[in-house]
Structures are given as C-alpha cells and as structure tokens.
Amino acid sequence: MGPATSRAPRPRAERGIRILSGPGAIGRLPTVLAELGSGGALVVTSAGTRTRMPLSDLLTGFEVRYWSDWSPNPSLDEALAAAALVDSLRPATIVGIGGASALDLAKLARCLPVAEAEARAALSQRPPQLRPERPPLLLAPTTAGPGAEVTRFAAVYVDGRKRSLDHEEVTADAVLLDPDLLRTCPREVLASCALDGLAQGVESLLALRATPASRRLATGALAGFVNLLDRLDGPPAGTLEDASRAGAAVGMAIDVSRTTAGHAFAYPLTAGFGVPHGLACALQLTWLLPLWHQRSRAAGARPDAGQRLADAAAALGVAGPQLLGAEFARRVEKAGFSSRLGSYGVERRDLNRIAEEALASERADNSPFPVGHAEAVGRMEGRL
Ligand SMILES: [Fe+2]
C-alpha cells in the first residue's frame, strides 16, 4: 500500500464532520475518498455487506485492502488485529461501511494503540491516549439507530465486558448517509437497530448529561424510529430516509448526553446471552422506565426528570409516562422478538451478575435516578 499523504490534521472541534446525505449518497464514495487522502484505503466491512453492495465497482481505480475479520460483538483481540493492520499498511484513509460493529472497528483500527497494554489503558482512561498517526476516516452506515457514524466513541468487548474508546478525535471526518443502503439490511437487524435508536433517544432525553440541544436532537429522532418500527415489512423510501437521518441525529444526541442504565444493563445480555444490542436495550427499558416513573412521583424527586419522562411518552405517542415500559415491550413484540428475558436463556441465578456488571458501568451513573442492585434484580426477575 502506498505511503500516506502527510497532512497535519486540525483538531476535531475545528474540522467538524462532513455529512453527505440522501438516496444515492454512497455514489460519492470515490470523490470523498480522493479528497480525504491520496494513496491506499483500508475498508472495514463485513463479508455480508460486501456481497450486498457493489463496493469494488465504486472503488475502481483505488488501491483497496478489505478487512472483515470479526465476530458479532467484536473483542479486544479483533480490534487489536485491525489496529495492527493499519500500523503495517499505513493506508491514506480508512473507510467503515456496515452496522455499528463495522463502524466502531474502523474507529478502533484508526485510534487504538497497537500494544495490548496501552490499548487496555486507553479503553479505561478518560481521556485516553490514542495512536498519534491517524489517517482520515469515512463512515457509511447500512443500519439506522446506533448512531455510530457520528459518535466519538467505539465499543469493544474486553474480557466479556463492554468498554469504549471515548475521545473527540475518534469521530469520523466524513459520513455518507444513504437511506438506500438500509434496503439491503436484514429485517431482524433493521428492527434491532431501530430499537437501539428508540432506546438511545429516550435514554438521551433522560440522561444527566443531556443539554437542551441534545434533547432537541433526541426528541426529533424518536419519530423516525417509531415510523420505521411501524413499517418494518417493506418500509417506504420516505420512512427509510427519515430513519437514516434519525440515526445520525440520535448519534449526535448521545455524543453529548451519553446513554444511561438502559444501556448499562443491556451490555451483559449481549455479551453473556447473545441478545442483539438494540433489542437488549429495549428489553431492559421495559422495567427501568416504570422504575424511574415511580421514582419521579416520590416526594422530593427532581421535577425535571418527571417532565423528561412525559416528553419521552409524548415523543413515542403514548398517553403518559406510566406506559413507557409497556410500550417498549409492545414494540419489541411487534418487531418480532420476545419481550421476556427468559426467552434468551436468562435465569434467576444470572441476575445478580448482570446487575453487578451493569451498576459498575459509567453509563449507570448517568441515569435520572440511581438504580439499586436488589431492586434491579427484583425487576428483572419480573421480566423473566
Ligand atoms: Fe446503543
């Protein structure tokens, strides 16, 4: 692979993300890639995406190396392999095309230190020490909901626990937001990603770190996911376009607010029981939202938290915040999944460990109300 063009990158905050959106936006891939850097490109994308998309046609004339070597919930070893590949190939640009795992691995390939000890440190430090030489990054999502195309963090499972590389320099330089790419996304993946978007929108509204601007983005995004979840079988072009924009909007919202205990309790379900991420978030919100609603009505509760729950209910089109948990269960079932934790192999004896792992996560501390270990176990037991 040819030498990368040397260009001193401006700080992330000055660069901003260049977003090209709309049907057919993926056709701009060669142009944007050429603008980002001359030389070879490393394309991080799954084998499935490569069979569904005419990537080799789009990238004719470019020196391209593909990397697809990861499992459904990428591990540290896989992220390190990607980082080592970038270190040896020295591509001029990195491209991530696919679902959240592909996009996050493209970010990790670019930023994660190559040495394991340094990589482990970077995944626990705030702010982390990134690799100094980072080629420009272009991302194109083929799902809508995770928002990974615009966030400054990348998830990876380290020793079975979810960790994040979290730094503004992790953010992509350019994003191609093409709703046509959602057409080839398998229905089950589209559904789980839309549930992720729905969960992230609601959690972002409720997060302690939310700002008025992030709440506006989250509220606006929720309608896009509601519409997509209502039309999962053969969604019309307008629905896919709205969902694609909603994905970027919710990503920008959580980039500021981060997520909450909903995500913290979801990660052990994904790591331990293979529940797809978005579905896992929605499942855990079926009991968390009623718990938070109950808290919001207690004497001395912060009035703004009650208002946020009411805002979330309005955005989801339900009659009141007392119905939010049931609404998530209904949405899960309507998307074609079971809303009971037991259906995924979770047993009573697993609940202590799930609660312990979740409550150790920094996401849990970003919740509108604290969640206790015993009450979490009790509520999850009620959802077996
Ligand atoms: Fe998520």
Supply the key terms.
384 residues; alpha/beta; 6-stranded parallel sheet; two-stranded antiparallel ribbon
Could you explain the architecture of this structure?
With 384 residues, the chain is α/β, with parallel strands linked by helices. 50% of the residues lie in helices and 10% in strands. The protein has helices at residues 12-15, 29-36, 47-52, 55-58, 76-89, 100-111, 116-122, 187-206, 212-230, 237-257, 261-273, 277-296, 303-316, 324-334, 351-359, 373-381; strands at 18-21, 41-44, 64-67, 93-98, 137-141, 153-158, 161-166, 174-177. The strands form two sheets. A six-stranded parallel β-sheet has the order 1-8-5-4-2-3, with helices on both faces. A two-stranded antiparallel ribbon has the order 6-7. A hairpin with a 2-residue loop joins β6 and β7. α8 (187-206) packs antiparallel against α13, α9 (212-230) runs parallel beside α13 (303-316) and α12 (277-296) packs antiparallel against α14 (324-334). It is globular and about 65 Å long. 52% of the residues are buried. Bound molecules: fe (ii) ion.
